[in-house]
Design a protein that fits this description.
197 residues; elongated
């Protein structure tokens, strides 16, 4: 009897409140759940994350701060120049580019090389060294995944290459083969033999 009375009371209250009142009660219940149920758990997670960050900070400071020795601009330029291929190594880089395309089963009909007049001098400390740029245009055919994997491998393995542009074109919507035109720049060190000790 008591259960039936509660159900009757609930129905009567619900009818009196109507739809807007019912939505309001539901929102109040949701806010109460957030305040007393979810919010404390979120605060515990934030406190744990802050404690972990403090612990990591202390560990790094105890291990010498994790500070890398400062590098002068001249040392940074020297390190970069050491990673770039020389003019004599240029053909090896291009051959590697073609081999990587073959490994991805891409079809390359031709390769167009353009020597640019762009040159960056190494500065007075570099004694006659600099960097020049050679543009490489590669028209090719293949699937998107193959083209993407080839570009990722090239750019990760050869720091002297940079991607200038990529054009993709599909001849037919029914095929997954793409016609692509990839423009790359090969950055070459112009280190002169007399500059070497």
């Amino acid at each position: 009897m008591k259960l039936a009375l509660n159900q009757k009371t609930m129905r009567r209250v619900a009818l009196q409140l109507g739809l807007p009142g019912g939505v309001g009660v539901a929102l109040l219940l949701l806010a109460a759940w957030g305040e007393w149920g979810a919010l404390p758990a979120w605060h515990r997670q934030i406190d744990q994350a802050n404690a972990e960050a403090r612990r990591i900070r202390q560990t790094v400071q105890q291990q010498g701060g994790g500070v890398v020795a400062e590098v002068t601009p001249e040392q940074a330029v020297s390190a970069l120049m050491a990673r770039l291929p020389t003019a004599a190594q240029r053909s090896g880089v291009i051959a590697g580019l073609l081999q990587a395309a073959k490994a991805q089963q891409l079809t390359i009909d031709s390769l167009q090389l353009h020597q640019t007049d762009e040159r960056v001098e190494g500065g007075p400390e570099a004694r006659g060294t600099g960097v020049s740029r050679q543009q490489i245009d590669v028209p090719l055919k293949g699937r998107y995944a193959q083209i993407r994997a080839w570009l990722v491998a090239l750019l990760q393995e050869q720091p002297a290459l940079s991607l200038d542009s990529l054009q993709l074109k599909r001849a037919d919507a029914q095929t997954d083969l793409l016609d692509a035109r990839v423009s790359l720049s090969l950055w070459v060190s112009d280190a002169r033999d007399e500059a070497k000790p």
